[in-house]
């Protein structure tokens, strides 16, 4: 009976023309080729090989040949990337450094569980649920695993605070910790409010709405919307913000996919600032969703765009999971401003040329001289109000403000923004933490003075790195003092006070204030 069954199976298989191997993926021979190659390496290659890494490299190479913004997100990076764009995370809400194998709080994040319980900068977290966290060579991500957890779960922390003999106990209920995308909002003048958006995350519109409401209550009839160095993010958040300034039924943008299908997005609600003046601040690092906002307002003759030509990213990505915890962000469409212009800069000459565009602009003098901006007359558009605008690569501002290309200032700005100054300032605060924790925002400006000795200490500190930077000249010492004071403010009070200090004597903001006073 067994022999008959086997023979019948062979006969039936021949009649139905079933085949193993080549015909299994006959509908997609390209997929079959890649699958077979990975299998051959897995089972036949002479040495053991991590085929996961080969797949990662292959996926990256494939995407590199499409466009500069289709990217692969490996599974070990996926949670970090999505958390940053989500706008919040679950944890106890502290940032920290490891100092001599001890966790030292830099800052209890505003709105997080630790801040509400009174945990402060300089506190040493020694135990979490009885687990010893000091004098152990454990990496930061392992430490974080003791502090993060499911929402509403508790963790008991034993904390050493300078000036106190006994350890403090904090029973922290893990909760939602906001990762703010609105870095700052405050009044620049009696009627001009300022809002800086760092990126467009899931919570940006909610944060923006709160900020603009508070500024209006303080008398703001004009808004400076700072999108400089904003790389973009969620398109929906940018659309919602643009809608606050654009009247109903006006086109905000449209997208077009590979089949030519067009999807239009219109303003659809009464915006909170449709009748006020708005100034949008952009620069060469304002990209994607930032350009959506600037382009929508410019093409609808709303407000004034100030600064320098934006980055030039007009491609729309969709995130697609690959089934193993990794994902791709694949370009699925191009977006266009209301007049019909694409602001995507060319990328036909490869990714290296594309990402080196900043240096090309610098060398051509575009960052210093408006006349050096190259425009294509075939991509000339007219707004309903008669304004001439151009496509082909970025948003060209209505009012140009040159970049301060002093190399020494750029060096100091890099040291501030890249985190080198953060650790230096942290060490300053640690020397007298009890005093610094008693200072409030109102007294900060008068009580904190940055000395020449601090400047010299910083130069020595940076000199120990491999950055190869030179000592700060006498002419730039006042700027370095301002940056150090701004970083102290950030670690004590957060980004709002930090941005206020940085914005003092800012060229573009000074121009906005000047324009706002011309009634």
Describe what you observe in this structure.
The chain has 519 residues and is an alpha+beta fold. The protein folds into 4 domains: 42 residues, no CATH class; 91 residues, Roll (Pdz3 Domain), CATH 2.30.42.10; 222 residues, 2-enoyl-CoA Hydratase, Chain A, domain 1 (Alpha-Beta Complex); 108 residues, no CATH class. It is 38% helix and 21% strand. It has 19 helices and 21 strands. The strands form 5 sheets. Strands 3, 4, 5, 6, 7 and 8 form a 6-stranded antiparallel beta sheet that branches. The chain has a 6-stranded mixed beta sheet with strand order 10-11-12-15-16-21, sandwiched between helices. The longest helix has 17 residues.
In short:
The chain is α+β, with helices and mostly antiparallel strands. The protein has 19 helices and 21 strands.
Number of extended strands: 21
**In terms of structural class, how would the helical and strand content be classed?**
alpha+beta
Shape: globular
Q: What composes the largest sheet?
A: 6 strands, antiparallel
How much helical structure, as a percent, in the residues?
A: 25-40%
The fourth-level CATH homologous superfamily of the largest domain is 2-enoyl-CoA Hydratase, Chain A, domain 1
**Uncertain runs:** 6-26
Mean pLDDT: 89
CATH architecture of the largest domain: Alpha-Beta Complex
By CATH, the topology of the largest domain is 2-enoyl-CoA Hydratase, Chain A, domain 1
Radius of gyration from the alpha-carbon trace, in angstroms? 28 Å
Oligomer: single chain
Distance N to C terminus: 100 Å
Total discrete domains: 4
Q: How many H/I helical runs? A: 19
Beta-strand portion reads: 15-25%
What would CATH call the class of the largest domain?
Alpha Beta
């Amino acid at each position: 009976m067994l022999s008959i069954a086997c023979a019948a199976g062979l006969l039936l298989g021949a009649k139905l023309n079933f085949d193993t191997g080549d015909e299994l993926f006959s509908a997609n021979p390209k997929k079959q080729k890649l699958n077979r190659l990975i299998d051959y390496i897995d089972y036949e290659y002479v040495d053991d090989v991590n085929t996961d890494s080969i797949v990662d490299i292959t996926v990256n190479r494939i995407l590199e040949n499409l466009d500069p913004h289709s990217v692969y997100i490996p599974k070990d990076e996926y949670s970090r990337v999505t958390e940053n764009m989500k706008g919040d995370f679950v944890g106890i809400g502290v940032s920290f450094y490891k100092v001599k194998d001890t966790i030292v709080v830099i800052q209890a994040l505003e709105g997080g569980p630790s801040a509400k319980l009174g945990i402060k900068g300089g506190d040493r977290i020694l135990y979490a649920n009885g687990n010893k966290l000091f004098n152990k060579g454990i990496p930061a991500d392992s430490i974080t695993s003791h502090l993060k957890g499911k929402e509403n779960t508790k963790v008991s922390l034993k904390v050493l605070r300078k000036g106190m003999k006994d350890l403090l106990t904090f029973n922290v209920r893990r909760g939602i910790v906001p990762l703010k995308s609105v870095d700052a909002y405050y009044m620049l003048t009696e009627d001009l409010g300022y809002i800086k958006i760092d990126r467009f995350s899931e919570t940006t519109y909610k944060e923006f709405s709160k900020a603009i409401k508070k500024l209006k209550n303080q008398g703001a009839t004009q808004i400076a919307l700072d999108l400089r160095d904003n790389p973009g993010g969620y398109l929906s958040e940018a659309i919602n913000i643009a809608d606050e300034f654009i009247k109903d039924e006006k086109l905000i943008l449209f997208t077009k996919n590979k089949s030519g299908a067009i999807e239009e997005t219109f303003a659809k609600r009464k915006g909170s600032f449709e009748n006020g003046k708005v100034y949008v601040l952009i620069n060469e690092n304002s990209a994607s969703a930032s350009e959506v906002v600037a382009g929508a307002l410019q093409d609808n003759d709303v407000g004034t765009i100030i600064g320098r030509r934006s980055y030039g990213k007009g491609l729309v990505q969709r995130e697609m999971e690959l089934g193993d915890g990794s994902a791709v962000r694949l370009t699925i469409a191009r977006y266009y401003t209301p007049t019909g212009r694409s602001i995507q800069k060319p990328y036909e000459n490869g990714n290296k040329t594309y990402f080196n565009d900043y240096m090309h602009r610098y060398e051509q003098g575009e960052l210093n001289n408006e006349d050096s901006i190259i425009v294509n007359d075939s991509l000339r558009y007219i707004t309903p109000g008669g304004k001439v605008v151009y496509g082909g690569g970025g948003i060209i501002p209505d009012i140009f403000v040159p970049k301060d290309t002093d190399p020494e200032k750029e060096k100091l700005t890099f040291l501030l923004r890249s985190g080198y100054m953060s650790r230096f300032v942290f060490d300053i605060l640690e020397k007298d933490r009890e005093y610094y924790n008693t200072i409030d925002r109102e007294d900060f400006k008068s009580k904190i003075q940055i000395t020449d000795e601090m400047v010299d200490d910083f130069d020595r500190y940076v000199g120990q790195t491999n950055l190869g930077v030179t000592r700060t000249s006498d002419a730039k010492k006042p700027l370095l003092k301002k940056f150090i004071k701004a970083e102290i403010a950030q670690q004590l009070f957060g980004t709002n006070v930090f941005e206020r200090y940085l914005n003092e004597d800012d060229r573009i903001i000074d121009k906005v204030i000047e324009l706002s006073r011309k009634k």
